[in-house]
Specification:
By secondary structure, the chain is of the alpha/beta class. The chain has a single domain, classed as DNA polymerase III subunit chi (Rossmann fold, 3-Layer(aba) Sandwich), CATH 3.40.50. It has a seven-stranded parallel sheet, sandwiched between helices. The longest helix is centred in the first third of the chain and has 17 residues.
């Protein structure tokens, strides 16, 4: 499709939400918040990709998705090798440490990796979690600056 000269094309813009945890919080607290966000978004019908820093971190998040809250479970599956459901069931939360599959439109990227994933702009929303540890705060500032310099819509939530 050709777009006539001078005619603007509407493109979706990724909204980035930074969740700033308390000064005494650590990476484990951020992972728990990530699981809560994933559960809430899944419950609202959103397609969620939970991005971890490494295979080991993804394994810890996998365990946490089973146990982070008494009596609840967030349906999830490893992103590597995943295929979209053909039976009409909702897509579970995808959990990975690499690029997610491109087969589905994804609503929300929850980033626990500490750096900006190259594929973040595929999502309508990105949730960035920033624990209270000084090194994690510095990485959070760098991610915030990255998005701000590129003109993304930024929102901050202090928890």
């Amino acid at each position: 499709m050709r777009i006539p000269a001078g005619q603007a094309v509407a493109t979706p813009v990724t909204r980035v939400d930074f969740y700033i945890l308390g000064d005494d919080s650590d990476a484990q607290a951020a992972d728990t918040i990530a699981c809560r966000l994933a559960g809430k978004a899944f419950g609202l019908g959103h397609a969620v990709y939970l991005h971890a820093a490494s295979v080991e971190h993804a394994q810890r998040l996998d365990q946490l998705l089973w146990t982070f809250q008494q009596g609840s479970f967030v349906p999830h599956v490893a992103a590597q090798g995943w295929q979209p459901p053909v039976d009409g069931l909702p897509t579970p939360v995808l959990l990975g440490y690499d690029e997610p599959p491109e087969a589905e439109p994804w609503d929300l990227l929850i980033n626990t990796a500490g750096s900006v994933p190259l594929f973040f702009s595929r999502y309508a929303r990105v949730a960035e979690l920033v624990p209270g540890e000084s090194a994690a705060r510095q990485l959070g500032r760098e991610r915030y600056q990255f998005y701000r310099e590129r003109g993304y819509e930024l929102h901050t939530h202090k928890l």
